[in-house]
Amino acid sequence: MNASSKKKIALIGECMIQLQLDANKQIQKSFAGDTLNTAVYLARLEHIHNTEVHYVTALGTDDFSEEMVQQWQAEGIHCDAVRRLEGELPGMYYINVDEHGERSFLYWRSEAAAKKLLADSTQPALTSLAEYDVIYLSGISLAILPAEDRAKLVKLLSDARAQGSKVCFDNNFRPRLWQSKAEAQEWYKKVLSITDSAILTYDDEQDLWGDTSTEQTKARCKECGIKEIVIKRGSEPCLIESDAFTGEVAAQKVAKEKVVDTTAAGDSFSAGFLAGALTETAKPNQSAAIGHLVAGTVIQHLGGVIDKQPIKDLENAINEALKA
Q: Which CATH number is 7-323 given?
């Protein structure tokens, strides 16, 4: 457990190079990843939670990797746990948008540096997570690792939790990253059994487990001993079950014509929820209200990581949510 006066949260995962054509048919480069998106928005909300935001991943020593780290540091994200591996490269993907606005993706990530976060190497690997008060990971964080390194990660999480760290898990299930649903279920169960707060997208629960009701989702989490369950349902109210609050919290109302890009809706909700939770005074329903505020803003702009000003503009609304 972190002994310093300022709290620390570690977000574990992968950031990739994103390529996409702009309106002039020119390729534009940016950086994106589910837990990275969450880390960025959480860092932008630090004035609320006063917690150091750390990103845990592996990158190469190439120019793209260096640019990523510089961007993260500019956002206020601590990068001391970013492993830099000589000769390795970040993953990359290309977004294709057809004439109907439907998106498809091409990926180059099979040899990405992030897959080697816990691999044996001449460079020191992550050996402990106990210095962090909160550790956040997603199903993608888990999926990209080889099985032997998933086992290492589960042990690191378990050891840190035994020393007082809190584990938060966001399901983010991506079938293409797993050999089978059975394999994914096996590893999800291992992580859920050491999870304190589960932030789950219901569509993914349906896809992975075949759930036909949110009660099934809640029951599975309770069997794993999870004390705080948050079920995200897009534009529908999210559902919460915890000792401090049980019920639903309405999503932000955003007119259909104002929705531009839902890419990071779930990631940004998680950031808002975590921001509230890290205050240690906000109740889960207040944290969820902040999550909805952030997500409702992000989806009105293009890209997973939007400009800073729209998030700054939420300050009064967030303060009201914390008073509610």
A: 3.40.1190.20
For residue 294, CA distances in Å to 68, 76, 141, 204 come to 23, 18, 23, 21
- 247 — pLDDT class (breaks 50, 70, 90): very high
Task: Give CA–CA dist 141/80, Å, rounded.
Answer: 18
Identity of the amino acid at 162? A
- Confidence band (pLDDT; 50, 70, 90) for 96? confident
Q: How many C-alpha atoms does 248 have within 13 Å on its Cβ side? A: 11
175 contacts 183 by C-beta, under 8 angstroms: no
The encoded tokens of residue 114 equal: 């992030």
Q: Is the model's pLDDT at 4 over the cut of 60? A: yes
Catalytic positions, please?
Answer: 267
Tell me how far apart the alpha carbons of residues 275 and 71 are, in angstroms, rounded to a whole number.
21
Across the chain, what does the average pLDDT equal? 94
Confidence (pLDDT) at 101: 52
As a whole number of Å, the end-to-end CA separation of the chain is: 31
Paired sense of beta strands 103-108 and 134-138, if any: unpaired
For the cut 80, the answer to whether the pLDDT of residue 97 exceeds it is: no
Round to whole Å and give the CA distance between 51 and 275: 9
pLDDT tens, residue by residue, 34-45: 999 999 999 999
Q: Give the residue extent of every domain in the chain.
A: 7-323
**Vertex 292 angle, CA 310 and 202, to 5°:** 135
3-state secondary structure of 317: helix
Taking the C-alpha atoms of residue 173 and residue 200, their distance in angstroms, rounded to an integer, is 10
Q: Which helix (H) or strand (E) holds 198?
A: strand 197-201
Return d(Cα 174, Cα 264) in angstroms, integer.
Answer: 15
Q: How confident is the model at residue 262 (pLDDT cuts 50, 70, 90)?
A: confident
- Read off the DSSP letter of residue 125: P
Phi-psi region of 223 (alpha: psi -120 to 50; beta: other; left: phi over 0): alpha
- Mean pLDDT of the region 162-168: 98
